[in-house]
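Ligand-bound model needed. guanosine-5'-triphosphate.
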Amino acid sequence: MNGTNKIHHLTEASQANQQHGFALKMMELLVIPTFVVDIDGKVIIWNLACERLTGVPAWEMLGTSDHWKSFYHEQRPTLADLVLQGRSGELQLHYQRHARRGDTEHKLCAENWCDMPRVGRRRYLAADASPIFDNDGKLVAVVETLRDVTDEKSAQVALEQLATRDGLTGLANRRCFDDTLQAEWQRALRQRQPLSLLMVDVDNFKQYNDAYGHLGGDQCLQRIAGAVSSEMRANDLVARYGGEEFAVILPNQSLKGAAIVAERIRCRVERLHLPNLGSKQHVVTVSIGAATALAAPDTDPSQLVATADSALYRAKHMGRNRISLPGTDGG
Ligand SMILES: Nc1nc2c(ncn2[C@@H]2O[C@H](COP(=O)(O)OP(=O)(O)OP(=O)(O)O)[C@@H](O)[C@H]2O)c(=O)[nH]1
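Prediction:
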């Protein structure tokens, strides 16, 4: 390298250093919470906004690989770590919503609830992580920016809740029941598994309302909703079908299994010992119709609902406070 080339090279190097320093300063001042980890996974930038978001000062974080501790109680990778370690395949394992950005699989964006141990209040954060390459295309660091979108997420959750929950009992509403039944019907078809349905109706509820008033009736429905829910497994769905009628979807359940669940629900409600002087037993009881179907192509679950409804009608007809199955009691 001759003298002129050497000076030119040095000038380029010092310019690059200057630009690098300028970029670092910019990141420090950004109003967007930002941190950068180097190739060894050590934090080299933890800006003011990140300090504010996490409650963790930069002096505590710089030079360590403890950045996950600012977000989570349990050890797990941050989005920056996934980019750094080429583990983008694990995105769905760690994040509620996620995507790869642009034409490269190195840029990731994702959202999830974070514990925020130092702040002591869970926040829903949207993160973007991008790799930084040197002039030779070698990965040297990863920058992660964060957005606190807790308010938007909470509003979305509340709206979803409003759209799918019954206001009085907190159970799934009729719309949610219809959607879930359709989805479970399709799943039963794919998996060639039976799908069972229970229709649960409160006995002599008109007399209950007459005796205890509409508010008393509402409280009774809440107690029954709690009792029915307590008998459910994780994949089952209890919905308020309408008025004083509840519906229970039991995926992968045979008619025999459905009958066992139905009897458990009937007993559970009886054991609440809610007085209803208008009924034969003098306590609030329910009648339950059960039905099971094997889904077939080009069919829908309406026949399953109709069969469970007919069984319920028979249970009422035969004296109430009982369960009824198709084909076993004259149905
Ligand atoms: N308190 C209250 N009552 C309701 C609600 N929805 C429906 N009902 C009442 O439930 C009663 C249902 O009466 P019916 O359909 O005659 O049935 P039942 O008296 O339970 O008689 P069986 O079903 O034949 O045992 C009516 O009086 C409705 O007003 C509600 O959200 N709250």
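Residues 3-29 form the longest helix (27 residues).
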